[in-house]
Write a structure and sequence with these properties.
Elements lengths: L3 H6 L1 H16 L1 E2 L9 H7 L10 E2 L2 E2 L5 H18 L3 E3 L5 H12 L5 E5 L15 H4 L2 E5 L10 H11 L3 E5 L9 H11 L2 E5 L4 H5 L12 E5 L10 E5 L1 H6 L3 H13 L5 H14 L2 H23 L3 E2 L8 E5 L7 H10 L2 E2 L1 E3 L13 E5 L1 H5 L4 H16 L3 H17 L3
Parallel strand pairs: 1-13, 5-6, 5-7, 7-8, 8-9
Antiparallel strand pairs: 2-3, 4-10, 9-10, 11-12, 12-15, 14-15
The protein binds pyridoxal-5'-phosphate.
Length: about 425
């Protein structure tokens, strides 16, 4: 992007933006929750809709001058409903965490019980973690993964649910490399009369591309961020499915009220315009091809790393990410993240299931392929990337890292973001 006006008016900010552009251009972005958005999405984000106050919903606003805001929000909602096959969608959530907060507001009273995946097993903060609002104002219980194979043990999920009787169950993950069985989660939710919320923030792009089973026929509520595999602006969708309507026909109303006036004031209409653009992109055939390439790339990367002696948690991946257990490599997640960053490979340290180290150090790193795939990389480049990662971890000396850094730069040049 040009940013001519920023350059003219505020050179300090301009220079920082340019440095960030340079960083993104010359590094391999492998944090699975990040991506490179299209220029069209970024243009919508910087559009005139930033200026408008529109508290309320289409047709029922507290401010005047909202005819085009209404058009835009209606268009965005219609696209989301079509793409996910649901009868209701709220598009005003500022981001994934406030969207989940709205689900709590709509379904629970403070102190009532929620069940989510344990953070250390790959869950999200907002699924009941103690330092988060969800663990502070609600009573939370957790399921995890089996020590044997690092997979969700649905029998155990059921046992915990039967014992604890949560009123809301989250099926959603941030570092789980396998398919989620939404049907099984729903059976468990029905047995205890709970709402099932599928938080597909990480995998929504794979779902619309047909690379991961959809929760639409199983969950009552679906939440997702729009900025991860969906490749849009920061933001969120909160959807109610047909069966959610059947369970509680007031759910849409409750969710709308939870978002506004419960949690938020004026919606970010420029963000909603950008979500609309991203949803149209996600409906295209090329996005389906993208989603399928993301998964193929992840499988290739995971196979190559296994062959080089890395322990891949759960033995591989079905989606866009994998978790490497570095215990046998004589390093920690923290060190590996630092060395790889120096070499231009951006990853995040991540707890592995039953991690003996504290989260700030941790024994693993999490790797994802969404951003590299957006740059056009395919299986062949994944082999190259696996080699680079292996070399950095094996020999993180200054000379080696400088060599890898220049090899990373040359891959980046061949695949411009
Ligand atoms: C990323 C994520 C969120 C939170 O999204 P933010 O936009 O960072 O608030 C919630 N749930 C899951 C499963 C996520 O992966």
């Amino acid at each position: 992007m040009e940013h001519n006006n920023i350059r003219k008016n505020d050179n300090e900010v301009y220079e920082i933006i340019k440095r960030e552009e340079e960083r993104k251009r010359t590094t391999l972005e492998m944090i699975p929750s990040e991506n490179h958005t299209s220029p069209a999405v970024l243009e919508a984000l910087s559009s005139i809709f930033n200026d408008k106050y529109a508290e309320g919903y289409p047709g029922k606003r507290y401010y005047g001058g909202n005819e085009h805001v209404d058009e835009m929000e209606n268009l965005c909602m219609e696209r989301a409903k079509e793409l996910f096959g649901v009868p209701f969608c709220n598009v005003q959530g500022y981001s994934g965490s406030p969207a989940n907060m709205a689900v709590y507001f709509a379904t629970l009273s403070p102190g009532e019980k929620v069940m989510g995946m344990h953070l250390n097993a790959g869950g999200h903060l907002t699924h009941g973690w103690k330092v988060n609002f969800s663990g502070t104002y609600y009573d939370s219980v957790f399921y995890g993964v089996s020590e044997e194979d690092s997979l969700i043990d649905y029998e155990e999920v059921r046992e915990i649910a039967m014992r604890e009787r949560p009123k809301l169950i989250f099926a959603g993950t941030t570092s789980y490399p396998r398919v989620l069985d939404f049907e099984r989660f729903r059976e468990i939710a029905d047995e205890v009369g709970a709402y099932l919320c599928a938080d597909v923030s990480h995998i929504s792009g794979l779902i619309v591309a047909g690379e991961h089973p959809s929760p639409t026929d199983h969950a009552h509520i679906i939440t997702t961020t729009t900025h991860k595999t969906l490749r849009g602006p920061r933001g969120a969708l909160i959807m109610v499915t047909e069966s959610g309507m059947k369970k509680d026909s007031d759910l849409p109303e409750k969710i709308n009220k939870a978002v506004f006036p419960g949690l938020q004031g004026g919606p970010h209409q420029h963000q909603i315009a950008a979500i609309a653009v991203c949803l149209k992109e996600a409906m295209s055939d090329s996005f389906k091809e993208y989603g399928s390439q993301v998964a193929r790339n992840a499988r290739m990367l995971s196979e190559e790393l296994s062959e080089k002696g890395f322990k891949v948690v759960s033995g591989g991946t079905d989606n866009h990410l994998m978790l490497l257990d570095l215990k046998s490599k004589d390093t920690t997640g923290k060190k590996a993240q630092e060395f790889l960053e120096k070499a231009g490979i951006i990853v995040n340290k991540n707890a592995i299931p039953f991690d003996p180290l504290p989260p700030a150090t941790s024994s693993g790193i999490r790797l994802g392929t969404p951003a590299l795939t957006t740059r056009g990389m395919k299986e062949e480049q994944m082999k190259e990337v696996a080699t680079l990662i292996d070399e950095v971890i094996k020999e993180p000396g200054e000379k080696k890292i400088a060599d890898i850094r220049s090899r990373v730069k040359s891959i980046c040049e061949k695949f411009p973001a």
